[in-house]
Amino acid sequence: MANKHIVVLLIVFSVLSCNTRSTEEKQEENTTSIDSIKPAAQATVIEEHDEYLDWRSVRINAKVPLATTVQNFERILGKADSVNSINWEVTCSSTFRSEDSKLAYYRGYEFEHFGDSLYFQSVTFGQNKDLFLQSNDIKLNSSTTMEEVKKLFPNAAKNVSKMDVYKIGEVDAIALPRSKTLSDRHWLLMFQTGKLIRIDDWSPC
Known about the structure:
The chain is an alpha+beta fold. Helix content is 24%, strand content 32%.
């Protein structure tokens, strides 16, 4: 009878030992599996521009901000050459403030004219050296060369695109951020024969 009890005890002990080893092995496998997991490499996310021409700092002929009143602008630079309705069939309305906006032209400057306000759109220099945009020590006019812009904004100038511009023809264009904060809007600097001929405050449609 005692022998039977011993046999039963041995069997129970054997089963418990197997279960214990199985649990320990599983824990070891689980531990190994967790330890082997490594965080995926994170892609570098650009949160702001380190090279830009701040829209808020730019002045027309070193005097007038890019958003101003009609009265303020005309007091300094004279009356508009023309104020025209916008053809919305060929114009992206999302870049303007209202369907009531018009386009105002002052020599080579083009503005959105809305109410009594003017918002800069572009400047076409041509050979007119009296037109220029200035931001602190940076002056951009018809005498500005591609090489000068490359020195001022080397990163932006790495990407020069060919464009066909209405009434101007083929140009070399550089897209330059207009703020430190990331934005779809940017300056579009256009060159012909290495000289700056036009600047647009560009935004996607």
